[in-house]
Amino acid sequence: MSTAYGSTPTHDPALLTEALKDANTTPFWLDNPNRPEPRPALTEDINADLLIVGGGFCGLWTAIIAKERHPEWDVVVVEKRRIAWAASGRNGGFCESNLTHGDDNGKLHFPNELATIHKLADENFAELHRTITQYNIDAEWENTGVMVVATENHQVPWITNSNAQQLNPTDNHGHGNSPVYRAALFKKDGYSFVHPAKLAWGLAEAAEKLGVTIYENTEITDLKHNQTGATAHTPEGKITATKVALATNAFPSLLRHLRLFTLPVYDYAIVTEPLTNNQLKEIGWTQRNGITDSGKEFHYYRKTADNRILFGGWDAIYHRGRKITPRYDQRPETFRLLVDHLYTTFPSLKGTKITHAWGGVIDMSTQLVAFHGTTRNKTVAYSAGFTGLGLGATRFGAETMLDLLEGKETERTRLKMARRLPIPIPPEPIAYPLVQIMRRAVNKSDQNGGKDGLLLKLMGLFKIGFDS
């Protein structure tokens, strides 16, 4: 069956190679002359009321909320590399209120809690924006909404049967036109865009102004429980803390029993050179909204402040042994495919240069939704498995971890996502071949009019998903 996009490029290979020839391997968001200098590493033994392991969004939100709740607490954040180095500085900057990876997935896993989850999601999104405003964080926040498009005929009913605002795919008031669009809808509420690295840097600065201490380039090598809390060891010091919040997401948890509940999956993106107003008019994209398509293998794209297009998604790559390493941040075959798909989407941009191409790792869980909990006599909390939805949902994870550490019973802690773990992902040697089989099944479904084969149907019965 002929489809809009495929796993093999259709454009001249020389054209794709030329477009990528000078692409910077640094993520676009981090290629910034105003990137903060790294903070000092920990070189001594210290004490803390709350130790937060991980300086990404989840860890930074936890730090800020903890100090807002308890100004008297001594809060310490320890980051293995630099603030925004990992997913917080590599994502597409799509910030949405949804906590369940879409309503259909929410109905599958939390059918009796959806009303509460929706309410909490709206509150979380509002608080996220409040924090950005209150602390004057220049995150390039744009509340401009997202257009969701069908690129295959079988996807059209998914769009037209929605209660969201319908758009004419060929005349949609500047939200974006493409010969591959078959139907389109627009969602405004709960969909915003940010410069993710600037958000992370701003959150770190806000946390420090509240009295939080942040150490960068400091790896926690061991976490030992004791009578009064826990002690975390680093190469040159240790932190003795009353409470610990683990916010390492895709990276191996310090709690070994949690490592089978997430899978590190690599996602990739490219960014074009700045486009002119005439180029944007040619593709019918004069508004500032983002765009996503509707396949199981999907794309997401948006504009940057200087009118480049960030175009990402499609491939979700898992490496044998749950390995995470900087060399996996580059995958030339995926970059060529993304350029090919960009040119297919907007033919008038054929030949446009790519200035940045990079990848990053996502913490996928089988329920495609984050899970939260505590262990070691409720002195250690964790939040992980955001599955690419972390920009907004990590704040919710931070609130939930703090509720649990404080022993509070709240609407958040009563949710199933805070009371049970998802189905685990098998260890090697099973994980790698299983993921490859799942990827082929997902691709085949898209190529077969959206009809799931036996494997995906079976996985659905067991409420197991694969996504990025």
From TrEMBL:
Keywords on record: Oxidoreductase
Keyword Oxidoreductase on entry: yes
Pfam families, sorted: DAO
Enzyme class, spelled out: oxidoreductase
Keyword Oxidoreductase: yes
GO cellular component, one term: cytoplasm
GO MF, one example: oxidoreductase activity
Domain FAD dependent oxidoreductase: 49-401
EC number assigned by the record: 1.-.-.-
Superkingdom, taxonomy of origin: Bacteria
Stored InterPro entries: FAD-dep_OxRdtase, FAD/NAD-bd_sf
Name this protein carries in UniProt: Glycine/D-amino acid oxidase, deaminating
Taxonomic lineage of the native organism: Bacteria, Bacillati, Actinomycetota, Actinomycetes, Mycobacteriales
